[in-house]
Amino acid sequence: MSTGTTKLDVVVSDVVPVNDLVTRFHFRRRDGELLPTFSGGAHVVVEMRDGERTRLNPYSLMGSPLDTREYTISVRRDDVGRGGSLFMHRNVKPGMEMVVSYPVNLFSLDLRAKKHLMLAGGIGITPFMAQTAQLAAEGGNFELHYTCRTASLGTYADVLRERYDRRVRLYHDDLDERIELDRLLSTQPLGTHLYVCGPAGMINWVRDRAASLGWPSETVHFEHFAAPQPGLPFDVTLAVSGKTIRVDEQQSLLEAIEAAGVDPPYLCRGGVCGQCETNVISCDGKFIHNDHWLSEEEHRSGKKIMPCVSRFEGRSLVLER
Amino acid sequence: MAAKSIISRPVYGTLSPQPGKHHLFITDAEGALAIAEMAGSAPPGFFDDAEIVFIPGPDGKHTAALQALRPAQFHLSPSFASLLPRLRQTLANAHMGLRLYLAGTEGLIGQAMQVALEAGIDHTSIQTEHRGSLARRMQCVHCKGITENVTTQPATCAHCGLLLLVRDHYSRRIAAFQGVCINAEDRSEIPPMEEVFR
């Protein structure tokens, strides 16, 4: 059960290959009505029915929040992942009926800011597509620094340059172009907010430098959806529902709980929002925590787990679920 | 010490050195002592990047204690009103990495925070420490006039003359507590006036 969200019956209205790795998907409501409004940075959880198996993956909405006739997402193909992005790339065709969640925003703009400084890495560009559209419409002050591997993999770099010209600065890894982060952070006017979306290493680097250079944590916003990692199968006892289940190699703990007919709360399914936080009643083994929600102390305590992205290795695990 | 009551009533902490490139201190009277105490836990060279603006108040004490910290810049100001243009100018030209520290009376902390909010600083990122008077800036909800240094409960509005209950309800936007007519039903009813905000 997705907390506070309702599902939307949509139809795939278009599928557009963007480059070698990224494909864009357009969704419209099946009843022809407008979709719910959203703000820049919001995501939806897309349900992928693949035979017996249902995957639920979060994707940032990248269209303009001013246009709710359709939702658009861009999916980067991950050949070694758990198969969600491959399913999207291979199986999803125009005209297909799908279900997506209502939009949820865990990465919203702070509109009190005097200026918005955005740092994107790779496919982390998608929430900024919506945020820049929102700000541009309001005359907002923003600057986007976008790092990609090569020009041909710089998803939407051309679109962004055309729309916003010099407000967008591109950095290409293959040309050894790097953000001069310390200088960039030290020359921003007071009242600037910082937004970063990209690989975990980039987010950690930016947050760390910003903190050292005196950016208050209130001004630093980031989003990184952890994809559930495959791992060794393990058994779990669900004490409240009185079930014992097995989590397969390619399955997340949350998916295994759902497959057993138990309906825990969730929202982002990427270790960010905190909705699926679950108490551990007892355990004998070690946790593999992959979330951004629990504190380090909570990770060490062995008393809590985020079943959407985290796993367990050991003899026994009993959860309050 | 300001006691916690309703959620809008500001609470203050204890100053502590923050990571940053510049440190701006605005302080009045006994607030100087909070800065001097914080200096004990500050890393070496901390005040090389610091500016202290001090309103000494009527007894004129503590100036030497602040100068002894050898901040990069030190300014004395006779009143908040007189430092306001300078503060606005400083914040307008400042970059991210500037950290703000406010120490002293509630009136000073509130008014300096109001200017900082306009400059885009999040109020939760500002270091504050209350020292000295609990006298309140009060806005009359009826005539909107601001009365400074209110020490009594109830208090008389300096603008429209109504007798006002000084509430804990506080506005960061106007840096004032709310005053509401205490005898609106029967103006002849005059409750005793006590000095409570010292």
UniProtKB/TrEMBL annotation, chain A:
Its cofactor is FMN. InterPro entries: 2Fe-2S_ferredoxin-like_sf (IPR036010), 2Fe-2S_ferredoxin-type (IPR001041), 2Fe2S_fd_BS (IPR006058), Beta-grasp_dom_sf (IPR012675), DmmA-like_N (IPR054582), FAD-bd_FR_type (IPR017927), FNR_nucleotide-bd (IPR039261), MRET (IPR050415). Residues 234-321 form the 2Fe-2S ferredoxin-type domain. Transmembrane segments: none annotated. Keywords: 2Fe-2S, Flavoprotein, FMN, Iron, Iron-sulfur, Metal-binding, Oxidoreductase. Residues 5-110 form the FAD-binding FR-type domain. The keyword Oxidoreductase applies. It holds the Pfam family Fer2. It comes from the Bacteria. GO terms for molecular function: 2 iron, 2 sulfur cluster binding; metal ion binding; oxidoreductase activity. The keyword Oxidoreductase applies. This is PDR/VanB family oxidoreductase. It comes from Mesorhizobium ciceri. The lineage of its organism: Bacteria, Pseudomonadati, Pseudomonadota, Alphaproteobacteria, Hyphomicrobiales.
UniProtKB/TrEMBL annotation, chain B:
Residues 137-180 form the Dimethylamine monooxygenase subunit DmmA-like C-terminal domain. It holds the Pfam family DmmA-like_N. The keyword Flavoprotein applies. GO terms for molecular function: 2 iron, 2 sulfur cluster binding; metal ion binding; oxidoreductase activity. The keyword Iron-sulfur applies. Residues 5-126 form the Dimethylamine monooxygenase subunit DmmA-like N-terminal domain. Keywords: 2Fe-2S, Flavoprotein, Iron, Iron-sulfur, Metal-binding, Oxidoreductase. This is Uncharacterized protein. It comes from Mesorhizobium ciceri biovar biserrulae (strain HAMBI 2942 / LMG 23838 / WSM1271).
